[in-house]
Automatic annotation (TrEMBL):
The name this protein goes by in its record: Proteasome regulatory particle subunit Rpt4
PANTHER family the UniProt entry points to: 26S PROTEASOME REGULATORY SUBUNIT
Pfam families: AAA, AAA_lid_3, Prot_ATP_ID_OB_C
Source species: Metarhizium guizhouense (strain ARSEF 977)
Superkingdom of origin: Eukaryota
SMART domains (alphabetical): AAA
Coiled coil: 77-118
Keyword annotations of the record: ATP-binding, Coiled coil, Cytoplasm, Nucleotide-binding, Nucleus, Proteasome
Subcellular location, record wording: Cytoplasm; Nucleus
Gene Ontology MF annotations: ATP binding; ATP hydrolysis activity
Main localization, broad class: cytoplasm
Gene Ontology CC annotations of this record: cytoplasm; nucleus; proteasome regulatory particle, base subcomplex
Length: 454
């Protein structure tokens, strides 16, 4: 319904009519041709009624239908919803900023406390008197009866546990990890690498014996309990140099995914009395705390040689180191997850006490490979190289009598160098023949190692 309101005297706006108009939600539009389609905001009818005497253009009052009111309400709701979501996004960003600032504040507060805090004393638990009191030995030497902080788990405070003591009250504040010598820690960083038994040729029997001693007790200890026997503690690998003793130990550690300690026996010997024995104790203690663990001691003849009644002070220090090693081997738990592998190319020089049953229960000889073994090793090393046609590896193997696994790997390397010298990208049969002859000549310079089989 449309009403036109003008300045004629016949159209006076009475209060009753004005009341009806105000409750009808009019929308007034100027009745001019160029502004007819332009929307205008609602106007105050009271102001309009007072201005009828002035020269104003006639206006049209339009009453909105229910459908138009519904659409206007929806548009208003949609606009408010968009504004609400914008404010929610801003609020979320502000909360994230507050959270970051809180973290920065906590970190700064911790740094300030660290700068203002007093140091603590390192001690060792000797004995537990009751639920609240412990006898501890401070690093300076004296012993004290002290209390324990409520947040510290008292069940873990066993004899020998390293703790931090308050500087004033000597109260146990926290537990500390076991003290580890830097040399032992560097041993634990040794990575056995991705070595598989498939990459070892000519040692099938030796691999089977080694896995029976090391792998089987770690994976299936219930088999030994069921039969009623005790698994071996360790194994000795002996044989000429370059036959794969270290490679076998790495393959075992890699297949089991255990911790691996590679110990160079000559590095254990220290010039100060007692330091070598202490290093042996820490090494075995670290292995027991990080089970399952495999300790590989290469060149064990450096500290495991026969003991003599006469000798210098250095010889006596080596003997003390050997006695500590024997003591640690005797203290091993049979079903523990710590195994030891020793390797040497001089088994005839080892002390009989080290070789007796109960310490090194199995001795595995790693001999020079025979013709079949050399063929397997040569094919393994030739898998990753570029070959020119078919290579007769059997003829190469027949010329490689007396070569070990390391020599055969060097044969492949020398053949590749011959190909590089001739500006070729592949290795042919002639390169292998020249390489194996060169290695056979160099092998004559090495002395032949003779030892009695254990």
């Amino acid at each position: 319904m449309v009403h036109t309101v003008g300045q004629s005297s016949n159209h006076h706006i009475t209060p009753r009519y004005l009341s009806v108009v105000l409750t009808a939600r009019y929308v007034l539009k100027p009745q001019s041709l160029h502004e007819r389609d332009k929307p205008t905001s609602s106007i105050d009818f009271r102001r309009y009624a007072n201005s009828l005497d002035h020269d104003t253009p006639p206006l049209v009052a339009v009453i909105m239908t229910p459908e138009e009111e519904r659409q206007a309400a929806l548009d208003s709701y949609r606009q408010k919803l968009i504004e609400s979501r914008e404010w929610e996004a801003k609020l979320k960003n502000l909360r994230l900023e507050i959270k970051d600032l809180q973290k920065e504040f906590d970190r700064t507060e911790d740094n300030i406390k660290a700068l203002q805090s007093v140091g603590q004393i390192i001690g060792e638990v000797l004995k537990q008197l009751d639920d609240e009191r412990f006898i501890v030995k401070a690093s300076s030497g004296p012993r004290y009866v002290v209390g324990c902080r409520s947040k510290v788990d008292k069940e873990k405070l066993k004899q020998g546990t390293r703790v931090a003591l308050d500087m004033t009250t000597l109260t146990i504040m926290r537990m500390l990890p076991r003290e580890v010598d830097p040399l032992v820690y560097n041993m634990s960083l040794e990575d056995p690498g991705q070595v598989s038994f498939a990459g070892i040729g000519g040692l099938n029997d030796q691999i089977r014996e080694l896995r029976e001693v090391i792998e089987l007790p770690l994976k299936n200890p219930e088999l030994f309990l069921r039969v009623g026997i005790k698994p071996p503690k360790g194994v000795l690998l002996y044989g000429p140099p370059g036959t794969g003793k270290t490679l076998l130990a790495r393959a075992v550690a890699s297949s089991l995914e255990t911790n691996f300690l590679k110990v160079v026996s000559s590095a254990i010997v220290d010039k100060y009395i007692g330091e070598s024995a202490r290093l042996i104790r820490e090494m075995f203690g670290y292995a027991k705390e990080h089970e399952p663990c495999i300790i590989f001691m290469d060149e064990i003849d450096a500290i495991g040689g026969r003991r003599f009644s006469e000798g210098t002070s250095a010889d006596r220090e080596i003997q003390r180191t050997l006695m500590e090693l024997l003591n640690q081997l005797d203290g091993f738990d049979y079903l523990g997850k710590t195994k030891i592998i020793m390797a040497t190319n001089r088994p005839d020089t080892l002390d009989p006490a080290l070789l007796r049953a109960g310490r090194l229960d199995r001795k595995i000889e790693i001999p020079l490979p025979n013709e079949v073994g050399r063929l397997e090793i040569l094919k393994i090393h030739a898998q990753s190289i570029v070959l020119d046609g078919d290579i007769d590896f059997e003829s190469v193997v027949k010329m490689s009598d007396g070569l070990n696994g390391a020599d055969l790997r060097n044969v492949v390397t020398e053949a590749g160098l011959f190909a590089i010298k001739d500006y070729r990208d592949s290795i042919n049969q002639d390169d292998f023949n020249k390489a194996v002859r060169k290695m056979a000549e160099a092998k004559k310079l090495e002395g032949k190692l003779e030892y009695q089989k254990l």
